[in-house]
Design brief:
7-stranded mixed sheet
Length: 176
Amino acid sequence: MKTYTRLLLSVFSVIAATVSAVFLISPLRATTANALTISETRRAIHAADTAEEQAVLAPITQMFDGMSKRDAAAVKKPVLSGGSMVLMRDGKPTQMTFEEFAERVGKPGTTKIEERIHDPLVRIDHDLAVVWAPFEFLADGKVDHCGTDLFNLVRVDGQWIIASVADTGRKDCGGK
C-alpha cells in the first residue's frame, strides 16, 4: 500500500509540474496569431488580474490609439516628458525621444497603422511598473513587423505614465 501511495504521489507531482510548466511557458511561445486588435487589447486590459494592472496597461492603449489616429498630441499624452525609446532593428539600436516618435507617427499619411500586443506580463512595485509583451505592427491591415515591447512606467500624481519604451522589431513574423 505504501508503494502504491508513493507511486500515485509521484504521478500527481509529474502532472502538476507539467501543467505548471505549460501555463508558465506558453505565453512566451505565443505567436503573432494571438495578437489582439485595439478593442481586444482594451478587453484584455479589463480582464487583467488586478485593477492596478489595468491602470498600468491603460496608458499603453492610449498611446496605441494615438498612433492609429496619427495624432501626435494623443501619442504624447500618456508619456513622461523627456522620456525616450530604443528600437532594436537588425541588432542596431535607434534612439529617439517620445516627442520625435510622436511627430514621426503623427505625420499625415494614407497608410493605416496599428500596433497590437498580447499576453502582457505586468510587474508593479509601488510607483514603478514594467510591461513586457509580444507585439505586431500592422500597416494597412498587414503585419509589417513584430517583436517584443518593453514599457517602463512610473506613477505620478496617482496616474501611470510611460517613462521609456524599448522594443525588438523583425520582419520574420510567422509567415504573415
